[in-house]
């Protein structure tokens, strides 16, 4: 597709119109004569989009426009200025785009321009290749789980195939095979949605090049690419426009790649991906382009949209409302897909996810290589994001350079967050044993409930003596949340519950707090502890999201609700969050063993550690019993008796619907 500029057969009027529009978008700009202080990645698509437009339609104006940007790029002695000139993202982007332009319109360029472009591609490709060889085991050359690796090698591969440099393509191919083998099979991505959208398209680009140039089909290798659309789908806020911002996310509107949706739809026959591609390149396109904090952004992907769109793939609106991604420990559940629906996203895993953590430890021990560069992964295991009624209610910090647990919806111990945090690479050089994980997960397509328990005690400084810090999150069929935090330490500690919002929560007469965001709202009820010191304060977060532009600073103000207990060796927080303006009865259930909350007909009973629940109506040996909807449901249960009737009695723990 890419090398030959040949899309799948069939009409593509919308994609053609997008391409022609993008090909002309920079006509009013003057190309730089010297290297700008900021990133120059955008120069690549400024040349490649009009090059493809000329290849397809033959308009000499498109040829002239492509030539303007080609000449500007080849005049620059280095690609990249502030950070790793010639050896990082700027060079990777330009190698890819200008190599395609050379392939598509090289014969139509004047001899001098064509020769200069070829020389520049050979020079920059050699610089990139030599750096990749020299830095193996260090930076992006072998950082298999992140975008710099994928982009730089895809750029090197594009240049190698176009210029006939087999040593470049072979090295890039070997790396690609390793990446595909090591990425998580569930399709999740620890860098977060924004870097998924920025980096994963280059994996698809490389696979496309490999298949066309060498006849090698690796689209099924490893399983990541075939499942990653599902991960991306379940990190969309209701209404599809915004994204959940776990990991480093510049904003909540930088997550779509219509081109990648189209390619995954075509390759794997995913109707929902086709539907999302049409939505992202149509109704959502210009608002994302205007509000996105990531450049070059979604508009320059027009060339890929044109070449990757397959009109024969059916289109279908997403319907699945529950998903769990075990490698990242990511649970996502929603009441629906319309904008006013409610979504929760809850995660806990080792740095980079389980597979990256395990594999990188082997690389370190066996080769002395550092392959896990997860600067975009946060100290956020046990945290959650809540979206409802078209607004973000419980929020994440987005992007930061000095990453801290205190910026997330987590717990502090004596005011401290995770060990070795407050830096960019919070997982670098920490002990292998310092891992968080999810257990007791209940999620299925036909179940309105969702349940998981995050184990995060290992993430705190060993000097604090934290033996247990387990957070259980339950999402009811109606979209209400129950959080149960159980903590234990060797000595008495202060335990602090954090809730981050976009504006200050409002105290209510009954001791609850009201979250507001525009017209949306949610009521926060704390049932335990009965007495806590509660304050609300502003938390400032600052970030430089790109090393290529050192002077760039993003700032964001979180409003943090802090509830702190008296000193104790044991801590418990039982919290309910009820979205919506309509009053909903919510009360604590009297339990002789376990903890319980009821919302009218929905009842949540929890005992994640002792696994013994006793009320006037329920006797269960289980981590959870969930009543209401089409239940009951049980989690890690061996026995369940309801109103004197035994519904479950089994030797091994069972999770699912009972009766």
Overview of this protein structure:
- It is a single chain.
- By secondary structure, the protein is an alpha+beta fold.
- Helix 1 runs antiparallel to helix 13.
- The strands form four sheets. It has an eight-stranded antiparallel sheet with strand order 7-8-9-10-17-14-13-12, with no helix packed on it.
- The model has no long low-confidence stretch (mean pLDDT 96).
- It is elongated, with a radius of gyration of 26 Å.
- The longest helix is centred in the first third of the chain and has 24 residues, at 111-134.
- Strand 12 and strand 13 form a beta hairpin.
- The chain has helices at residues 13-23, 43-57, 60-75, 89-105, 111-134, 147-163, 166-182, 193-214, 224-233, 258-268, 271-280, 285-291, 302-308, 354-367; strands at residues 322-325, 330-334, 342-347, 384-388, 391-394, 411-413, 437-442, 450-455, 466-475, 481-493, 495-501, 506-507, 513-517, 520-528, 533-543, 554-564, 568-579, 587-589, 595-599, 602-606, 613-614, 618-621, 624-627, 633-642, 645-657.
- Helices cover 30% and strands 25% of the residues.
Spatially, the strands of the biggest sheet line up as: 7-8-9-10-17-14-13-12
Q: How is the main sheet built?
A: 8 strands, antiparallel
Mean pLDDT: 96
Measured on Cα atoms, how large is the radius of gyration?
26 Å
Describe the structure concisely.
The chain has helices at 13-23, 43-57, 60-75, 89-105, 111-134, 147-163, 166-182, 193-214, 224-233, 258-268, 271-280, 285-291, 302-308, 354-367; strands at 322-325, 330-334, 342-347, 384-388, 391-394, 411-413, 437-442, 450-455, 466-475, 481-493, 495-501, 506-507, 513-517, 520-528, 533-543, 554-564, 568-579, 587-589, 595-599, 602-606, 613-614, 618-621, 624-627, 633-642, 645-657. The chain is of the alpha+beta class and 659 residues long.
